[in-house]
């Protein structure tokens, strides 16, 4: 341990002597880190979703005043902060700057080292997107064990970016299926509905895929008791602890494992691999509570996350060959720990709330009078001093999708003496905490992409090679359906991605595609010929973009390109 401290001190002093940003350039080289000697056999990444600086401070203040613990487990290993911006992208018909990220684009950055657009799950920002490999996928390629843990649905954006690739994060059924293909050893969280068919009261149109996991050697568990019963011999685990997201701490039943429980069991299973392991642990519901402006639930979720941090750090300190890195994808809610020019916080009331506003919301929605609202608030918070104006506000709702729940949380915020700017994400920098050899690569002001490249560097992972391997297998295109239901693709962009020569004669309204001994021409956006002979291949011109079917590209390339409708991707069969 003393040796590590001396090395860390030397590294830190060396960094001080470098020009600002020089160390970050070094981290960027880690995409080719496969040839480097790893300095950490194991890496544990912990992500507090939506956990901005104010969320951390609120949890610390609560801990100090209510739990008599003056600091969080995080505090002793703080090393810096990370930017969170994404690529420019589309929000319907609007082009957005990307300065305010979502979890998918932020997750792609710290999982793969690449920026992308909001909603993208580890694919590039192109009409014909290409997959980016994550540190989890590169770890599998290196023979390491891997794990993904969350209090959200396991198919939600943050875990998904590590082991799945889709153009839109909402395609959670595809993400569940891709987990089966990925080989990730331990998957723990909510989201059972995306593994189960509609016939079995799930969300899938095809079939229940849990038996497919069992056939691949996974032990499937559904509660804390089942998880606790597993031993280190059970090295492939699928834990589904809720149909959707795992219950908030405030609402959690005894049969539901905590994030710390999940973390301890995952480490036990994964650490049996002599090659080491890489795992990601997400406190997913910090974000959800902050979206709703539910301050009471948010604090408890942050403390739940911090307890998992302790489990990870305790293992790393005992193991001596593990790096731990902790950050957030973004801040949520625009939380402020003050309001109304009052220099005070009503910390005494911060534990007044007995259940989450999510659980309270249906009861508030059913209330028909301010008298009923008053009684509900008194019952679940102890507050009985609401004004008639406040009660009427809750009864009517806050005018957002959160309705009565949002209004309730705004009224409660006044009593806590805190504030929220809204129900969305913000663009503030987020904290970075680290332990082990990775510390020297993530100190100071970094970009979120440096989290991935730094992990690759210390673990000796080859992100570049793993990405190239993935890109020989799949493409993720924009697409549309024609009147007959045939799937059509942006022809010029897809041709370029497949290295097909394209000549566009706008004057003659002829676009020519050529590869090898095949020449395909499209005249007027609809008439198709192949090697001079008329063809029935469908073609369509939409908003000056030419679309062709996959069969056209099969003929041009001589390959068996196949459309995977579930994952909305092209499978490249050699």
Describe this structure in words.
A hairpin with a 3-residue loop joins strand 21 and strand 22. The two termini are 50 Å apart. The protein is an alpha/beta fold and 574 residues long. It has a 10-stranded mixed beta sheet with strand order 8-9-7-6-10-1-11-14-2-15, sandwiched between helices. Helix 10 (259-270) runs parallel beside helix 12 (295-319), helix 11 (285-292) packs antiparallel against helix 12 (295-319) and helix 15 (388-396) packs antiparallel against helix 16 (403-416). The chain is 36% helix and 21% strand. It is globular.
Question: What key phrases describe this protein's structure?
Answer:
10-stranded mixed sheet; globular; single chain; 5-stranded antiparallel sheet; 27 strands; alpha/beta; disordered N terminus; 36% helix; 20 helices; 574 residues
Short summary:
The protein is of the alpha/beta class.
Strand content: 15-25%
Oligomeric nature of the chains: single chain
Amount of helix? 25-40%
Order of strands side by side in the largest beta sheet? 8-9-7-6-10-1-11-14-2-15
Count the E strands: 27
Number of helices: 20
Radius of gyration: 26 Å
Compute the separation of the termini in Å: 50 Å
Mean pLDDT: 93
The poorly predicted ranges are 1-32
Structural class: alpha/beta
The largest sheet, given as strand count, sense and whether it forms a barrel, is:
10 strands, mixed
Shape: globular
């Amino acid at each position: 341990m003393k040796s590590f401290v001396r090395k860390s001190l030397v590294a830190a002093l060396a960094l001080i002597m470098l020009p600002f940003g020089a160390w970050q350039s070094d981290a960027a080289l880690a995409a080719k880190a496969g040839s480097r000697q790893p300095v950490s056999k194991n890496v544990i990444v912990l992500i507090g979703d939506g956990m901005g600086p104010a969320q951390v401070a609120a949890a610390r203040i609560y801990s100090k005043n209510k739990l008599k613990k003056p600091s969080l487990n995080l505090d002793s290993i703080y090393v810096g902060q990370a930017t969170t911006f994404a690529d420019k992208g589309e929000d319907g018909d609007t082009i957005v700057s990307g300065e305010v990220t979502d979890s998918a684009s932020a997750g792609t950055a710290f999982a793969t080292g690449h920026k992308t657009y909001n909603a993208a799950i580890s694919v590039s920002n192109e009409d014909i997107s290409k997959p980016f490999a994550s540190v989890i996928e590169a770890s599998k390629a290196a023979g390491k064990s891997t794990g993904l843990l969350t209090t959200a649905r396991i198919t939600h954006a943050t875990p998904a970016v590590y082991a799945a690739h889709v153009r839109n994060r909402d395609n959670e059924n595809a993400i569940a299926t891709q987990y089966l293909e990925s080989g990730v050893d331990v998957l723990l969280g909510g989201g059972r509905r995306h593994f189960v068919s509609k016939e079995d009261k799930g969300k899938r149109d095809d079939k229940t895929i849990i038996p497919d996991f069992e056939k691949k050697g996974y032990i499937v568990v559904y509660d804390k008791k089942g998880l606790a019963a597993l031993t280190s011999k059970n090295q492939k685990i699928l834990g589904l602890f809720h149909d959707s997201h795992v219950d908030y701490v405030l609402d959690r039943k005894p049969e539901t494992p905590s994030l710390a429980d999940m973390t301890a069991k995952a480490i036990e299973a994964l650490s049996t691999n002599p090659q080491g392991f890489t795992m990601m642990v997400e406190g997913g519901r910090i974000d959800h509570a902050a979206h709703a402006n539910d301050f009471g639930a948010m604090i408890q979720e942050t403390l739940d996350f911090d307890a998992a941090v302790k489990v990870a750090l305790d293992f790393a300190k005992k193991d001596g060959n593990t790096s731990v890195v902790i950050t957030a994808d973004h801040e949520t809610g625009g939380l402020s720990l003050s309001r109304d020019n009052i220099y005070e916080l009503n910390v005494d009331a911060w534990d007044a709330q007995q259940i989450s506003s999510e659980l309270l919301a249906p009861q508030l929605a059913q209330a028909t009078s301010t008298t009923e609202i008053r009684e509900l608030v008194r019952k679940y918070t102890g507050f009985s001093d609401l004004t008639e104006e406040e009660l009427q506000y809750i009864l009517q709702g806050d005018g957002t999708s959160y309705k009565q729940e949002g209004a309730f949380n705004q009224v409660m915020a006044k009593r806590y003496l805190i504030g929220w700017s809204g129900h969305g994400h913000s663009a503030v920098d987020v904290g970075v905490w680290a332990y082990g050899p990775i510390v020297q690569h993530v100190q100071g002001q970094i970009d979120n992409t440096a989290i991935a490249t730094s992990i690759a560097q210390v673990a000796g992972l080859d992100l570049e090679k793993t990405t190239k391997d993935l890109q020989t297998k799949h493409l993720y295109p924009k697409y549309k359906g024609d009147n007959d239901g045939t799937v059509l693709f942006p022809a010029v962009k897809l041709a370029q991605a497949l290295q097909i020569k394209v000549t566009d004669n706008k004057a003659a309204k002829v676009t020519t595609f050529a590869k090898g001994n095949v020449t395909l021409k499209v005249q007027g956006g609809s008439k198709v010929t192949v090697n001079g002979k008329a063809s029935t291949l469908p073609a369509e011109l939409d908003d000056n973009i030419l679309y062709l079917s996959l069969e056209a590209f099969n003929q041009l390339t001589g390959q068996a390109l196949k459309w995977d409708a579930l994952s909305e991707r092209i499978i490249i069969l050699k």
